[in-house]
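User: Could you walk me through two proteins back to back? I'd like the raw sequence and the structure tokens for each, with a short line separating them so I can tell where one ends and the next begins.

Assistant: Of course. Protein one, sequence then structure:
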Amino acid sequence: MAKPVLIGGLLLIGTTVAVLVSNLFSTIEKNSIKGTEDTTMMAAAADLNLTPVGSVTAVDKSIVKEARSGEAVYTAVCTSCHAAGVLGAPKIDDKAAWEPRIAQGLDGLMKNAVNGIRSMPARGGDPTITDEELTNAIVYMTGKAGHDLSAQVKAGAAPAAQVAAAPAAAPAAAPAVEAKPAEQAAAPAAQVAAVPAAAPAVEAKPAQQAAAPAAAAIDGEKIYKGICFSCHDVGIAGSPKLGDKAVWAPRIATGNDALYNSALNGKNVMPAKGGNPALSEAEIKAAVDFMVEKSK
């Protein structure tokens, strides 16, 4: 009886040992490396270490920025006055109104455009406009009125240096312009462009005050300095001067919606969006908010 039990136990032990040995060899086989060494992970780690952390863009500062076309300058700055003839500015398509101005030649028009005259601010209120862009704008506007000054561009356009060095050199041309109240010299575009930002807003119907959420993320001061300042800094055409609390009080009382509406749609001599249709509704509202905040 004992012998069969002993034999059975030995067989069980032997089977167990065989299974364990088989598993051991199987594990060794699976975890061993055969043939060429696998360097995939090492290569991936090397690529990761060599990945650039940034980039550098080389800029050739000797390259001059391309000047905008006359139409582009007119649309951005001049249209606010010359489209409707604001403050006597010659309308872009009024040939008769341009004729006495054309008599000055491109040189005379450039001097007035660079220095400003009467209610027309220098360079249309935008100091970033270059001489070449001013010339382009003048040629574009006079061309639309049926007068071709393109032949005078190279010979007749007065550089800024000449204009600044001898502002009195144009007494013969300037009086001819001043003799007519309607005279504006090619770039009065921004002189009234700022009026819509708030000037006539006092006439708008009262509405609920509601700050535009989108305007909060836009720099209203930047918009103001780009176009509104030319009128609101000095109070041109009855526009309230920035910071004049007494003048702004009745306008602020009408509410933000009324101010926004007047600025966006225009009123009386004030063109819609300050005469710059490229400005978004949020940008106009941001400019209004800035002026209101500075005038409370």
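----
Protein two, same layout:
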Amino acid sequence: MRQKLGQHFLKNKEAIKTILRALEVKTSDIIIEVGPGHGELTQPLVEICRKNKCQKVIAVEKDIKLAERLKKKTEANVVSADILKILPQLSQKFKDSKFKIVGNIPYYLTGKLLRIIAELKDKPSLIVFTLQKEVGLRICGQPPKMIRSISSGSSRASRGMNLLAASVQYWAKPKIIGYISKKDFQPAPEVDSVIIKLLPINPDKTRIGAEKYYKLIRILFKQPRKTILNNLLLSLVKEKKYQKTAKIKIAEKLKSINIEPFQRPQDLDINQLITLSQILYN
């Protein structure tokens, strides 16, 4: 079952301390842990929760056998369930409370879980995940010009905006707060991991609906090596006889918001993407 669910259990105590600090546990917090496994993080969570007088720790474990074992050795509320199915219910249940999510997330679950969180009407106040390093870097992707100014070309920074980054950064501010070697897990995965902190944000009231925003970024990043102008033109104008006129109009709209038509999608930051979605669909 462990291999089927892609679980790798974190054994590095310093990394666990980093995760706990990042959670900023406070009075009245409710902590939801995804995939607690053997409880490597669960018990330290319970202890810090008791110290800071938070409400409760809810550990959601899909593996029934692991859940039953964990119930015998922790004071956390252990729930045997699929997080993808139960999270919307928990979000609704705790909508009037301050809840946070933490967990060591298997690769196969990452994209699905992030989409579920993105769709929640009542989002957690804070999220701390351990993810595959490459996935974490992609989530934190920024235009190359911003990368240079922020990190002076550090090799740890993802080069360029991408679909995953544009999807997540629409609803949260991501930050990598730690790096974990694959040797710090049992069994050891094939790649290193990162600890990433996601701070959900309230979308500005002037933003266009999420559905249209996500439609735009799917268009732009379907062929990321093509220019922004060509991606939009080929998607929005199907008949060739209208493309010449449409190309001029789209280029004018892009220039009106300081986007060069022949830039590529990776060159845009999240604010430019949001602004572009507004002018295209209004």
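Residues 259 and 272 are 8 Å apart (CA to CA).

Let me know if you want the two compared in more detail.
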